[in-house]
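Page 47, continued from p. 46.
Same chain as before, 420 aa.
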Amino acid sequence: MTPAVESLIIVALLAIAYALDKLPAAVVAITAAILCASLKMIPYAGAFASLAGTAAVLLMSMMIVGGALFHTGLAARIARAFLKLTGTSERGVMVAIMLVAALLSSVLNNVGVVVTLMPIVLKMCQDAKISPSRGLMPLAYGAGVGGAITLVGTASTVTANGLLEAAKIPSINFIELAWIGIPLTVLSIVYMAVWGRKLIPDTGSSFEGLAVYNEKDDSQKSGKQVICGIIFVIILICMAWQPFKLPLYFISSVGALILVLTGCISEKEAYATIDWPTIVICGSMIAVGNAVTATGGGKLIANWVVSVLGSDASPYLITAVLVIVVTVMTQFLSNVSTATLMTPIAIAIASGIGCNAKTLGIIVALAANGSFLTPVGAQAFTVVYEPGKFKFADFTKVGLPIVLINTILAIVLVPIIWPF
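Result:
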């Protein structure tokens, strides 16, 4: 058996392990990386090098930045300012919830956004005499689509970008994905306001036992919020502008350090905001991706795809197939796992058909973020599942049009903006 085949077997076993969900995803990922090193596919140090790689550093530092906004109460204050602009009509409440969730989620961890906004959303629903389920569903979808606006909006996009960088392919810049993310967000909000709200069930959930926001409980110091807000804006400007060609991970790291030094978030709180399993998955799967590339496993898959679709297959056809496959996978695996499994394969396919690997990498990143049909593909949906007393099928019914919007935008716009 060749090393190329062995690497693909490891990837297949990874997919099965993720799907079965019997072991923690981080344990599965680090086991695969160690196995690749043990079989000499990559150097021993290569199994762990990416745990402190640029993608992992970018993820960790942005988690700390987001944590500072949450701990100072600035995120909640921003949310309240936006939400006060709407009336108590159900449509207005839903639009406001989706808009503020999308804006915050574009640069912050979407799980943190949902958790932070949930008490405020429940308070709005209570005031407007709306069932909690009618507010929690738009909250989850707003956070989900908003993550596609920037590179740091979702961990899966950062991971996919790390794999592109590891393969010496031009990386995705901070605001580049907005060409797709903004239309996706706008169309999703319009859909929810016009049609989607009719599909959201009133599950009979009550406010009893749920944490509803009470303005008297907000005892955060406004001074820290001002400092945190100024630093946050500077971080965003620097990431969009990249002065002196500073890399994003360096800018975010300096920003996180300044937030700790100014007391916007303590060292202990900073460590607590880091989602360590995500970091382990990201770093370990980059190692597995390097093994697949080094052994020729990716090229093997690319050759197989070309033989099935034909050597003259249209890149548009391959793009459509890739979008559909990744979209289906991400409904049941975590979006980070899906991105890490499929990005090396997309890179190899691009090499096999002679097209721009960055284009297919972006396709994977966008499709992996489209986990809108189930409550298990993305944690933002899992968080509202129980409080809203939703059924599994409720997400499928409401999310299908958003998945179709995401799929069409990816297939039509990506090749135009990032030509093959």
